[in-house]
């Protein structure tokens, strides 16, 4: 159920609400091991949904070798239209004996994020990794966009 993938938390001291889309697995390869998940986060003033200026997309990678270093270019093709999203920067990196874990964060203006969220077919490239988002992932992203926007957009 899509609603279970979205978490909202109001901070009464800051008078801010943070909305998070829980990680959505967008790539999984058994050998060599590689997993990539996408989550999102946005904060707005007050308790009522209010369109934020920007959305943070977080990419969590677990792999047998480093795939992403300090940064990776992010591009989308949404319903055939190319959207340049910018650079995702590493926020954590944990080298391990059998795997590497890296989290990258991308800041996207809300309008650009809404274009991605409202797409029917969404392809994405992070660095050299290309994926096509599943209908369940795009539905979760769309539900997240509606939760932070305060309006229903798209279908």
The CATH topology label is Immunoglobulin-like
Helical stretch tally: 2
Chain-averaged pLDDT? 90
Count of separate structural domains: 1
Taking strands numbered 1, 2, ... along the chain, how are they ordered across the largest sheet? 1-2-3-4-7-6-5-8-9
Please count the beta strands (DSSP E, at least 2 residues each).
9
Helices and strands: which structural class?
A: mainly beta
Distance between the termini: 16 Å
Low-pLDDT residue intervals, each spanning 5 or more residues: none
Note the beta-strand portion: over 45%
Q: Biggest sheet, in brief?
A: 9 strands, antiparallel
Q: Rg to the nearest angstrom?
A: 16 Å
What is the architecture at the second tier of CATH?
Sandwich
Reading off the top of the CATH hierarchy, the class is best stated as Mainly Beta
What string, H for helix and E for strand, traces the elements in order?
EEEEEEEHEEH
Gross morphology? globular
Helix content: 10-25%
Would you give an account of this structure?
The chain has 155 residues and is mostly beta strands. The protein has one domain (2-149): Immunoglobulin-like, CATH 2.60.40. 15% of the residues lie in helices and 54% in strands. It has a nine-stranded antiparallel beta sheet with strand order 1-2-3-4-7-6-5-8-9, with helices on one face. A hairpin with an 8-residue loop joins strand 3 (34-45) and strand 4 (54-63). The two termini are 16 Å apart.
């Amino acid at each position: 159920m899509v609603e279970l993938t979205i978490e909202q938390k109001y901070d009464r001291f800051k008078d801010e609400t943070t909305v998070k889309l829980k990680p959505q697995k967008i790539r999984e390869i058994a050998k060599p091991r590689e997993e990539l998940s996408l989550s999102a986060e946005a904060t707005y003033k007050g308790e009522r949904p209010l369109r934020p200026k920007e959305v943070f997309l977080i990419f969590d990678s677990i792999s047998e070798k480093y795939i992403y270093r300090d940064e990776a270019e992010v591009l989308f093709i949404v319903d055939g239209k190319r959207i340049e999203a910018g650079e995702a920067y590493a926020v954590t990196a944990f080298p391990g004996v059998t795997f590497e874990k890296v989290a990258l964060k991308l800041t996207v203006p809300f309008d650009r994020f809404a274009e991605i969220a409202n797409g029917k077919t969404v392809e994405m490239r992070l660095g050299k990794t290309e994926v096509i988002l599943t209908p369940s992932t795009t539905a979760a992203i769309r539900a997240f966009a509606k939760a932070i926007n305060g309006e229903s957009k798209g279908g």
